[in-house]
């Protein structure tokens, strides 16, 4: 018990010694306000299809909607594509499980007359859903829930990469 308590008390010192810094509390900014301001200045461009709408809504919640009224200085352009693989079959050959892989290619650009590319990347996530026997409503709900989870995960990944890039560039 004492070893556990000692390790718990020493862990902040170990983290401080390794150079660990929380993402949203950079350098000399006590509360990460500058980084939050940069993220709020990112305007998310329209994304087509239903998955694109879900992704755009999730990105907006993490970026421009965090501080309403912030003037946009950047534009995030995202393209979404997905692939699906069958993972399970019944003995009669009917499909019981499908795995979906989503890839989102994104580009962060500055707004204005001299547009500059700041960051380009691809976020990939995968998830699966079941197709229960003769329960079509349950299959639809399962697929929709999987799509929402995927888009939330992709949005979180993209927002984290943007935050890391702003921090790396020293703009926040």
TrEMBL record:
GO terms for biological process: Gram-negative-bacterium-type cell outer membrane assembly. InterPro entries: LPS_assembly_LptE. GO terms for cellular component: outer membrane. It holds the Pfam family LptE. This is LPS-assembly lipoprotein LptE.
